[in-house]
Amino acid sequence: MNIVILFFLTACAPVLKNPPLGNPTLQTPSYLDQQYRIQVGDQLDIKFFYNPELNEQAIVRPDGCISLQFVHRVMAVGLTPEELTEFLTKKYAVELKKPELTVIVRSFGAQKIYVDGEVSKPGMFPLLGFMTVLQAISQAGGLKDSARMSEVIVIRHGLDGQPFAFSVDVRKVIDGTDIRQDIPLKPFDIVYIPRSSIGNINIWVDQYIRKNIPVSTSFGYNL
Known about the structure:
Helix content: 25-40%
Distance between the termini: 56 Å
Oligomer: single chain
Number of strands: 10
Strand content: 15-25%
CATH superfamily of the largest domain: Outer membrane lipoprotein wza domain like
Radius of gyration: 24 Å
């Protein structure tokens, strides 16, 4: 897991150097409005309004395709449900007079987020529906005492595929002063919790003092 996180952090280095540390809620609406695109492992329902006998369920295969009656192999990965609906409507128009159908994503097969840094159980976690930064941290066992709660970094890929980063202050979420900081996560987001300055001092003391200078924890007194 640490290798994966380090890879992403390395790729994001130019972005993290000067991350936008302002209120992240100013940035999120455009990303929340972005339509979901079908991925490998998703389970799709294809429902016909006037030809229910053609209703099908299909799982997106590793090659990105689904198999359906009449139209057979169809590439689904990368399309929105609306785009796939439009494509299938045209395909079924060859067999049906006025096909009316819709594509529904019943379950999401490949949605994951990553949590690393000062949490009890860093790792990769499934993104099942709606999940916020604080919920992801909870999935990872909660924050350590050494966590820098005021500057939790979220790394995300933008519409152009390039990573960018911003910070959220989970202290304000916990004390209720600004719950908007607890933003919803998107697939493959990385939530990185850095170490606080106190945490860094404790590590320095442990590595350079306690492990190198013998300190006795028992004291004798002459009465």
